[in-house]
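Hi L., both proteins are below.
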Amino acid sequence: MCAKAFDAAGNLGVSGNITVTVHNSSTDIQIPVVNITSPLPESIVSGTIRVNFNYADNCGVKYIDLYVDGNHVLTAYDEAGNLGLSPSISFNIMNLR
């Protein structure tokens, strides 16, 4: 690509050539994938619980929510606003008083 300019007298000036690359972005429609890796389904746990998980998305995950009432589900949101749900798992938390 080059630029051309004319002055009031009609003289032409031409810039040097440059290369321009255009990246057309497409709409992100791929949902994130998220899975709870521990605790294992149907396990019995107590005390402070660490929930481990893995996730992936073609454009990156923005944040992940964990819903803990009832069955346990992770929801992953990507930058485009797509959301993916982990498979629901249940585990019992036994805190004795």
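That was the first. Here is the second:
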Amino acid sequence: MWKVFKAEEVIDFAVEIEKNGQLFYQTLAEKLENKELSLVFADLADQESKHIVDFQKLLGSLKDAPLNESFPGEYQEYVKGLAENHVFTKGIDEAIGSIKEPIDGINMAIKFEQESILFFHELKELVSPGNMGVINNLY
């Protein structure tokens, strides 16, 4: 039932996730009143920016795999479905409102990062064996 995705497509999606994360963390850093927590989120935003650069470097080492879909757009629908349940879909204002103590912010960031790792792990199963090494570099 599972089809093979091109690793390039998975990495492009990873870049978008990192961009969303960078924006999310940076906005939290700017809006939160707790200075220490703001610094943590600013650092997370910087790390997301570095991940974007790293992921883009991976694109040069890819071996294209043929895309075998049961119907046109199948992979796009699948990835979109995964993304809808993925990190950074909660609004920033809602996220800020849920942070009552600094530990709440840290736990939120940990949860988002865990969801990213799980997401990339799921996508790893959808690329050709020759591209799995590249996908392993995402997490």
